Amino acid sequence: MPKLIRLYIIQVLTGFGLSALFVGALLWLNVANLWTLISGSDVAVVAVIMLVFFNGVVFAGVQFAISIMRMAEDDDTSGGKRERIRPQVPARVRVAAEAPKARSLRILNRR
Question: How many domains does the chain have?
Answer without folding.
Answer: 1
